[in-house]
Design brief:
This protein has a single domain, classed as Acetylglutamate kinase-like (Carbamate kinase, 3-Layer(aba) Sandwich). The chain is built from nine helices and seven strands; from the N terminus they run E-H-H-E-H-H-H-E-H-E-E-H-H-E-H-E. A seven-stranded mixed beta sheet has the order 3-2-1-4-6-7-5, sandwiched between helices. 45% of the residues are buried. By secondary structure, the protein is of the alpha/beta class. The chain is globular. 45% of the residues lie in helices and 13% in strands. Helix 2 packs across helix 4, helix 6 runs parallel beside helix 8 and helix 7 runs antiparallel to helix 8. The structure holds uridine 5'-triphosphate. Uridine 5'-triphosphate (UTP) binds next to helix 1, helix 3, helix 4 and helix 6.
Length: 238
């Protein structure tokens, strides 16, 4: 089974806590021991936002800010690489072909961003499409996909399951509301829809939740079941 795990920077390294990074490396290694081929895409989190804020104040343009963000995601990717033992490519993959090549050689691929004007949400969806992943897991700092921003709207409801088309509609609605943050961005949702990738959005603050989700389909997040994927979930228990 091929799995892409998207780990938000604020989930992997909220405060550069090495045991947390280690715990995520353990999850990746356990999945590999289970027979999975794994690509981990790491975000930039608060550190990226701090650098981008400082550089914006210095007059950097948006593409320059994105490049800065990409560099931070790759720094975080290197942290995860440092925590993984043998069997991981020694540097973050910088494009999708490189990621595909690493997986084809049966190594773990770790990467951050690849190009300006997107986030690692979209990178994760694109890698999943490129390698034909069976499952894409977004380990985020929120419990799943909600009808509204749960921090802003008291009666926001969490969806247990959405089709990919429904995900696109929900995220498009959320992104219309200035200031409200969607757990996965619209470009990512559209790539998931186009590729028909089975996906899960979950609270990744406890790394073992990713393990339960991949191994058993057991999680409290939101399942994204594209129309083409059917209801066949049996590969969880393989
Ligand atoms: P993230 O993917 O971490 O952004 O990329 P995010 O979703 O806002 O943050 P978390 O980690 O989920 O909290 C950080 C920044 O890097 C640039 C963008 O500027 C993005 O905001 N980036 C990242 C790119 O320009 N291209 C990429 O492929 C990835």
């Amino acid at each position: 089974m091929k799995v892409v795990v998207s780990i938000g920077g604020s989930v992997l390294a909220p405060d550069l806590d090495s045991p947390r990074v280690s715990a995520y490396a353990d999850v990746v290694e356990t999945l590999v021991d289970d027979g999975c081929r794994v690509a981990a895409v790491v975000g930039g989190g608060g550190v990226a936002r701090d650098y981008i804020g400082a550089a914006r104040a210095l007059g950097a343009n948006e593409i320059e800010l994105d490049q800065l963000g990409i560099d931070v995601t790759r720094l975080n990717a290197r942290l995860l690489i440092a925590a993984l033992g043998e069997g991981v490519a020694t540097a973050p993959a910088t494009d999708y072909e490189e990621a595909g090549e690493i997986l084809r050689n049966d190594d773990v691929c770790v990467m951050g961003g690849v190009a300006p004007a997107q986030t690692t949400d979209a990178v994760s969806a694109a890698v999943a499409e490129y390698v034909g992943a069976d499952l894409l897991v977004y380990a985020t700092s929120v419990p799943g996909v909600y009808s509204d921003d749960p921090n802003e709207v008291a009666d926001a409801e969490q969806y247990p399951q959405l089709s990919a088309a429904e995900l696109v509609d929900v995220i498009a609605g959320l992104e219309m509301n200035a200031g409200s943050s969607a757990p996965v961005d619209l470009l990512a949702a559209k790539i998931i829809q186009r590729a028909g990738t089975r996906s899960i959005v979950l609270d990744g603050t406890k790394p073992e939740r990713v393990l339960d989700a991949v191994r058993y389909g057991d999680h409290d997040g939101t399942d994204i079941v594209p129309e083409a994927a059917g209801d066949d979930l049996t590969y969880w228990a393989e």
